[in-house]
Amino acid sequence: xxxxxxxxxxWPMTPPRPYSFFHIFLxxxxxxxxxxxxxxxxxxxxxxxxxxxxxxxxLAVSEIYxxxxxxxxxxxxxxxxxxxxxxxxxxPMYLCLLLPFLPSGGKKxxxxxxxxxxxxxxxxxxxxxxxxxHPYVTLTLHGFFWHFALIFIGTSCFLSRLPDRSVKGYLASxxxxxxxxxxxxxxxxxxxxxxxxxxxxxxxYRPSQQIIFHQIALKTGIFWGNAIYVAATAFGAFLIHLxxxxxxxxxAAGSGN
Length: 257
Known about the structure:
globular
C-alpha cells in the first residue's frame, strides 16, 4: 500500500539544467522567502528554538518520504547507501530536533554550528546544483526545499540571541563539525571500497566528487584531498561566522534588539 501511494507522486520530469531559468528562478524565490520568513518570525519575537524544532520535524518527515521513495519506487527493494542521510546538509535536521532539550552551553554550540554550516551548505548546494536535479518532480523539489530550509535555519540563528558570535563561539562548534567528519569517514570506511558511500564527500577509497576538490584529490592523493576539503569547509564556516558576527551588531542596533 505504501508503495502504491508513493507511486502516485512519481511524476517524471527531465532533470533541469544547472543555471537554467528553473534553477535561477526557484533559487531566488526560495532564498528570498526563507530569509523573509526568518526575519518575520524574529520581529514577532517568536521563540527561535520552537520554529527551529518544527523545521527539524519538516526535514525529518521529508527525508522519510525521500528514503521510502528511493527504496520502494526508484530502486525497488534495494537501498542506495549514497543517499544515507548523513551529509553536512543533513546534520542540521538532527541538531534542530535536539536543540530545545540541551543545556544553555550546548544550545550556544549547536546554534553557532547551525548558523555557520547551514548557510554554507545551503548556498553552496544552490550555487552548484547538479546534486539537486532528479528525473522526478518530488525529488527535485525536495532537494531545493531542503536547502531553502537550511538558509531559513541559518538566518533564524543569526537573528536570534542563541549563538556565541565571537571567535570563541566558532571554535566551540568546531569539534562538533570535526566529530561529524570523523563519523562520516567511519561510515565510508565501514561500507568498504565496493560501495558508492561518500558521507561528507570524504571517502577513503576514491577522490571527492565535489567540484574543484575532485581535481585537488587527483593531484595530491585522496588523504590530502579530503583534508583540504574539510579544512576549506571549516574555513568557509569561519568566514561566515566572522561576517555575521559583525553584521549582527549593526542589525541589532538598527532594530533595537
